[in-house]
Design goal:
The structure is a single chain. It contains 24 helices and 14 strands. By secondary structure, the protein is an alpha/beta fold. The radius of gyration is 25 Å and the shape is globular. The two termini are 49 Å apart.
Length: 550
């Protein structure tokens, strides 16, 4: 059980306790434990109960329950709460903005027990008369429930990749001569996975599937097609094909329809089993798997994907958090980790003072952190920490520090974290004013979306990108798997307008620095070239970019 799964159990425990009116002190204890565990980067499975209690925010009570969960796979008190809570009510707890108190009111007053029932109640205007609700709240919940229902049985690539790689290794041990090839969304490394599909070459003896740990066959759609349930969470649809059919089947299930049709003649002639060779023969040499969803075939030429950004091109890591705000590791620990990973520089950008929920830095803390950066830079030279902040964009588009503080930083990531309900005109104007601020160097996660949890607020992308171009502001591609914001579909327009992008992990712990990998996948889908990526600059050139600020 990985750390995030452990943390999720504590989040659910706290929510169910609050839902059922349990001891509020204990509830807060488990909320605090959840907040710490979700960012903790040392595997909990490798620690002892005594060590759990040393984790900040985790006391003896939570430590005992972590030990229980790791050893038994469940927490007794949580299982009892789940047993008396309808599954649909537990689903409602997963919806953003649906806290335990609101759900309790709806459950008691309307007898609603599922998201679908609640959506119907919203459409019938039944929430308006409930205490603490109103028309705007009802409309907001209606939108969020619809989004939740549409997102069911979908996954984030950055969340499931590790499990899929583990599945591959288990597969190889049982079927060393039968290759497993991911297709569709997984092969394209899409930020959101609608279906997990694979091809097996050649056909296997299905009676041996039981030898693979943590799987079960759940469905068979003929002799060559079956589905597996892995880790009781992921449904993997498997199709067995001969080597002679592999390229055709992989292309059909992974490429966009226009691309597949453009290659139809080549498919009929090609006799091998290599997708790379086949693409050469078909006139699409070097087309990466991330771009297999190409729709505009007429403009698709090798120049479009030659020189795409690669993971090895990244020279520095920008937009990171430390214990100065809501990170789990100290500034020095984060910097050393980035240095030891082979990067040349590290941009710290803790939360600003308006982000009180994230322990944002007040002006006194800013000065103290800047002094610490100077000291750590002396120790780690020639590696360099650059002084940044993630400054909240206020409702009117201004940043949340006075100029006397803003000018202390070497770069500023301007981001919106609050009031996400503005219409397109107001949201766009808010962003453009922040972009026009002379201290803004990077626009952070421009729509503030959370994939499969919250759609981004509406903005006029072209106006925002054009404002970045006019003010020499870099656009962030936030690589947190839940964000992937800016959406890769707009990368081409950024490049057309001369706007650089920065692939940022928004790391809140050392392990999250690795999020840049998923950002690279998304950047490649959008056609980002190395020369248009800010953090592909070496230290000297990045310093020139810092010095170029007005």
């Amino acid at each position: 059980m990985v750390n995030k799964e452990v943390a999720a159990q504590f989040n659910l425990l706290a929510a169910l306790m609050e839902l059922h009116g349990e001891n509020s002190f204990k509830t807060k204890t488990y909320i605090t434990a959840f907040q710490s565990l979700r960012k903790w980067d040392k595997p909990l499975s490798e620690m002892s109960e005594a060590e759990y209690a040393t984790i900040p925010g985790v006391g003896s009570s939570a430590a005992g329950k972590i030990a229980e969960l790791i050893s038994k796979g469940s927490i007794e008190v949580l299982e009892k709460l789940k047993a008396k809570t309808p599954e649909g009510i537990q689903q409602l707890l997963q919806i953003k903005g649906m806290g335990p108190k609101k759900i309790r009111v709806i459950w008691d007053s309307l007898g609603v027990e599922t998201p679908a029932e609640l959506l119907y109640a919203c459409n019938e205007n039944r929430l308006v008369k409930l205490p603490g609700f109103g028309l705007k709240t009802q409309e907001d919940l209606c939108s969020k429930i619809s989004y939740f229902l549409d997102s069911q049985h979908r996954y984030l690539y950055g969340v499931i990749e590790k499990e899929l790689l583990e599945f591959e290794e288990k597969w190889k041990k049982v079927f060393p001569k039968n290759k497993l090839h991911w297709t569709g969304d997984v092969a394209r490394k899409s930020p959101v996975i609608s279906s997990i599909d694979c091809l097996i070459v050649p056909a296997i003896d299905k009676t041996k599937l039981s030898k693979i740990e943590a799987i079960q066959v759940t469905e068979e759609s003929g002799e060559d097609i079956f589905s597996l349930l892995y880790e009781d969470r992921y449904t993997i649809r498997c199709t067995m094909v001969d080597e002679s059919e592999f390229v055709n089947q992989w292309s059909k299930t992974t490429m966009s329809q226009p691309l597949y049709e453009a290659l139809s003649a080549a498919i009929g002639k090609y006799k091998g089993d290599s997708v790379e060779e086949f693409l050469v023969e078909g006139g699409f040499e070097g087309l990466p798997s991330e771009m297999m969803d190409l729709e505009d075939i007429e403009s698709a030429k090798p120049a479009m994907w030659e020189g795409l950004i690669e993971r090895k091109d990244l020279r520095g890591i920008v937009h990171n958090h430390s214990t100065w705000s809501d990170g789990i590791n100290t500034l020095e620990e984060m910097a050393i980790h980035v240095r030891d990973a082979g990067y040349e520089y590290f941009g710290i950008s803790d939360h600003s003072q308006s982000a009180f929920y994230a322990n944002g830095l007040n002006p006194q803390s800013v000065i103290a952190q800047l002094e610490e950066i100077d000291e750590v830079n002396k120790k780690l030279a020639p590696f360099r920490i650059f002084k940044g902040i993630e400054s909240d964009i206020l409702n009117d588009g201004s940043l949340d520090y006075e100029d006397v503080i803003l000018r202390q930083f070497e770069f500023i990531v301007a981001s919106i974290h609050s009031n996400l309900r503005m219409d397109e005109d107001k949201a766009t104007a808010r962003l453009i004013r922040a972009i026009e601020n002379p201290y803004t160097r990077i626009l952070g996660h421009p729509t503030s979306r959370l994939l499969l949890a919250r759609p981004g607020y509406p903005i006029h992308y072209k106006k925002v990108i054009e404002a970045c171009a006019a003010n020499h502001v870099v656009m962030e591609l936030n690589a947190n798997p839940q964000r992937m914001d800016i959406d890769y579909h707009w990368i081409r327009y950024c490049q057309e307008k001369g706007v650089m992008l920065s692939i940022n992990p928004d790391a809140h712990s050392r392990s999250q620095v690795e999020y840049v990998k998923y950002g690279v996948f998304s950047a490649r889908k959008g056609g980002l070239k190395k020369e248009n990526c800010l953090n592909a600059l070496g230290l000297a050139d990045f310093q020139k970019w810092i010095d170029a600020k007005s």
